[in-house]
Design a protein that fits this description.
The protein contains three helices and 20 strands. It has helices at residues 2-18, 164-170, 390-396, and strands at residues 20-35, 48-63, 66-77, 94-103, 108-115, 137-146, 149-157, 184-193, 197-211, 218-235, 238-251, 255-270, 275-284, 293-294, 325-335, 340-350, 361-374, 377-388, 407-416, 419-421. The protein has a single domain (2-421), classed as Porin (Beta Barrel), CATH 2.40.160. It is mainly beta. The protein has an 18-stranded antiparallel β-barrel. Helix content is 7%, strand content 54%.
Length: 422
């Protein structure tokens, strides 16, 4: 055993000598109490309580003009497997990222493989780090960066065949559906930065596999275009950022898009070094079109948990073709010292369009997040409370008299990211 450990150590030393080799990990258990998370809960329903853990091991290798990176992960729900089970029934072990990056010169490179695509405030494309599984894409990127200008061109072509013979028999039909899983993706992202201002432009096309009424026969591709800009300004104690995005083309199932939009504006002010304030609004269009078409915008592959309240009532696997949303919010961040901080946010929701009853008001949410840093790790905890209006009960399909009087959610999370070899 000592000989094997010595050989392994010598191998790491030799690799370290020849190139930059890194190993790091992540251990992230999270406990949640759910009593109205995601949707309203009935008064006779039991609250949910559970613990999940994200475990990651990341390997990086860099030499000359190329880089290699691999991140493997498992998402564990405590108690999901019976005792002495020979295999994990959850089947959650996965390669989260594996990519290679090749430098053409000082300003141009390409990045190929499974990777996180995250831009700006992650409204349309983000890593979704809150979710234990995260979000990734299998893609090829051509990247250019020179001074204050950035250009990314991305392409993806997805298949889900199990073997070569099966692939030949079914052709190029892509059977994976749901959550805007795409067959093809093509996008361009441009960003320019000045002294106190930056602006970006995203042009994104997603192709979705359509099927005939039998649910098996391929019936062409629907192409959805999403395009828009993110603007960011900061000077002294003041800051502002804005999103404006439009969607056109067709969604999954050949549903035509008409007049879908997302617009937001957020303002920030640093009162002191330890107190920051924020004020903002976001409007997302809803479905006001006829049969076979929609005017509803969906933010696709963004980190949607970050927006419209942490209780995830909107655009987190839900609200995809509904009445849209108007989100007015205020927030504050208090830094008590180098180790601890508290984030507070109050959000008021209403429909961009009225419900069948004519009601628009949906309710108000309060979000609290406390963070405390220790040496080498941190602990975060949160509490959220939904004060539902009559419109929320109608939207979620639960009679007010049958709903619990308290709708809330609480969580605590440990985050440990050890640097094993650096």
């Amino acid at each position: 055993m000592k000989t094997k450990l010595t050989l392994l150590l010598l191998l790491f030393i030799s690799i370290k000598t020849m190139a930059q080799f890194t190993i790091d990990g992540e251990f992230r258990p999270r406990t949640e109490y759910r009593h109205g998370y995601g949707t309203l809960i009935a008064k006779d329903a039991e609250p949910g309580y559970g613990i999940s853990t994200r475990a990651r091991l990341n390997f990086g290798y860099k030499k000359d003009k190329y880089q290699f990176y691999m991140s493997i992960q498992d998402v564990l729900v405590w108690g999901e497997n019976r005792q002495i089970l020979p295999k994990d029934l959850n089947n959650s072990f996965a390669v989260f990222q594996v990519w290679a990056k090749f430098d053409f010169n000082e300003t141009w490179n390409t990045k190929i493989g499974r990777q996180v695509l995250s831009y700006d405030d992650q409204r349309i494309m983000g890593g979704l780090d809150w979710a234990q599984q995260g979000r990734n894409h299998d893609a090829i990127l051509i990247k250019h960066k020179k001074d204050d200008f950035l250009l990314d061109l991305g392409f993806a072509y997805n298949q889900d065949y199990d073997n070569i013979s099966g692939f030949q028999s079914v052709g190029n039909t892509y059977n994976t559906t749901g959550f805007f899983s795409y067959k093809t993706m093509l996008y361009g992202y441009l960003k320019k930065t000045w002294n106190s201002f930056s602006g970006s432009l995203l042009l994104l096309n997603n192709g979705f596999q359509n099927f005939a009424e039998d649910g098996v026969t391929q019936d062409g591709i629907s192409n959805l275009q999403t395009f828009g800009t993110h603007l960011n300004w900061k000077k002294g104690k003041f800051g502002a950022n804005s999103n404006l995005f439009l969607q056109t083309g067709e969604r999954q199932g050949a549903i035509k898009i008409k007049g879908a939009y997302l617009a937001s504006l957020d303002l920030s002010f640093k009162v002191t070094e330890k107190i920051g304030l924020g004020l903002g609004a976001e409007m997302i269009s809803g479905n006001d079109a006829g049969e076979g078409e929609t005017g509803a915008f969906f933010p696709l592959y963004g980190t949607n948990h970050k927006f419209n309240g942490f209780m995830d009532y909107f655009y987190v696997g839900n609200h995809a073709n509904s009445i849209g949303l108007v989100d007015l919010h205020i927030g504050a961040n208090f830094t008590f010292n180098e180790k601890s901080s508290l984030f507070v946010k109050l959000l008021n929701f209403s429909g961009e369009q009225a419900l069948p009853s004519g009601e628009k008001s949906l309710g108000t949410e309060l979000d609290l997040v406390y963070t405390h840093k220790f040496k080498g790790f941190l602990i975060k905890g949160g509490y959220s409370h939904m004060f539902a209006s009559d419109g929320m009960y109608e939207l979620k399909g639960l009679d007010k008299d049958l709903a619990a009087s308290t709708q809330n959610w609480a969580w605590v999370m440990l985050v440990l990211k050890p640097k094993i070899l650096n």
